[in-house]
Task: structure prediction
Amino acid sequence: MTDLWSLFLRASFVENMPLSLFLGLCTFLALSRRTETALGLGVAMTAVMGVTVPLNQLLYVWFLAPGAWGWAGLPELDLSYLSLVAFIGVIAATVQLLEMVLDRFFPAVYAAFGVFLPLLTVQCAILAGSLFMQERRYGLAESAVYGLGSGAGFAVAVVVLSAVRTRLAYADLPDGLRGLGITFILAGLMSLGFASFALMAAQ
Amino acid sequence: MAAPGSFWRTLTAPLLRENPVTLQILGICSALAVTTSLATALTMAASLTVVLTLAAGLISLIRRHIPDTIRLILQIVIIASLVIVIDQILQAYFFEISRALSVFVGLITTNCLVLGRTETFARHNPPVPSMVDAFGNGLGYSLVLIFIGCVREVFGKGELMGRQVLPLAEQGGWFTPLSLMLLAPSGFFLLGGLVWALRTLMPEQAEAPDFAPPEHREAAE
Result:
């Protein structure tokens, strides 16, 4: 149990997707203008990653890993090169499914998410979660915890950044730095903060 | 067919004036993650340019046959197949670099730059201009990667392409490596600085201020 908890903390803080691994930066920067949208994005990320990483883990172990087709008399078959296409397919399908379920049962939540849900298909952080899972050979429980943790870490980072940017709306910045430039520098400062989590983990 | 002049413009516009990374905010993830050394940055830049150019060509070829409703999935599958090919080639011939790039080659699939260009340009234009546009954007992306890769490697390790260019203090020289350059925050700072520099040189790229006087604010939202 403690192992899973430490994996969760590790995934959300030490290996924070946007701030230490530079993943999912496009949405991280583009959708952090307002705190409400940032919160919605964070929740959607956590939900999608919590579902897709374990799903892809099952898919990988039962169909794609070397020797996975042993039960069908094909022990030498190695389909792991197909994992990229398979993973992205699962992610696209999950996002679509989530969209339909939300639309049917939770229309208010669906309206709040708006356009972000379909955009999540091409979110690098989500695909990266599955690829890291494959590279590090996580089990099913570990994958679920890792997915949830990474999503939660992304949510924390994006909400904090949006809060800082809201405050910055009244700052008098040099013209060239306004918008993207200052956001990068803010993200850099936050990233310094998150780097200290890595030092804590190392001790 | 367009005149040669417009070809040249399509090719060179994304280099500085409409640079995909600094102006269009596309493909930032990989621009920062793989730039701790010049060699990985170059590999990534080359892989992305190849994938982008081929994907734009292919998608532009079948652009009249793609139904609108499933175009995203189709485009992603085409891109993912190209990425798998590149990944296998890298693993076969440049194993060390492919280790260093880790999952980032696979992540070209979801690089917003690729999907962004196929979605906005290749879907509406014939193959040749699409490929020229894609190649130009690939070059613009490569420029940023190479610049950041150079700065981070030179100041972080005093090396360039693995060769020592600044004599290190511990070996009798004068240079003390800035280890911050190899960590995540420096990538953000460098790219932020680069964006600032470019927008100061080209003021028309600067963003409109977020702040509006309170009485106009309700109307703006």
About this structure: The first helix of chain A runs from residue 2 to 14. The radius of gyration of chain A is 19 Å. Chain A has a mean pLDDT of 82.
